């Protein structure tokens, strides 16, 4: 049996003619597609689909021509469709990832703003001397010794007031350990 005889027989539903064409062209088509995509498994899938299409469209085949060019065209077009589909999926995944990141940034910004407001409330609720000491130390970076000299109090008093402030802050943020870590590092 040759390729043209196989086409005639296949148009009449002869599965052995289809098997002949499959055995004749399968390996060559896989090699052809693999040179383009460098993925043998994907190439085999593409070529199998090409043969399915050949069988489904057998009534349209020209009985005077070899199906070789038709098979190569189907396989190549299927390969191009696979690339387009992969690019669409990549683009969609990229858009989903971007949106997720933007949502996360917005969530983090909102959460940070709430933490800042809560911290301000806690600090504002401290006794005046305690509030002044923690502000000097944490916002201006003044050391305990310098705070003591500036305010005319002992270092032990500064330490005591800082302990009071930290206790109140810990109580307020006991459900948010990340905030405590950032504050006390």
Automatic annotation (TrEMBL):
It holds the Pfam family Sigma70_r4_2. Residues 118-163 form the RNA polymerase sigma factor 70 region 4 type domain. Keywords: Sigma factor, Transcription, Transcription regulation. It comes from the Bacteria. The keyword Transit peptide does not apply. Residues 21-88 form the RNA polymerase sigma-70 region domain. The keyword Transcription applies. Belongs to the sigma-70 factor family. ECF subfamily. This is RNA polymerase sigma-70 factor.
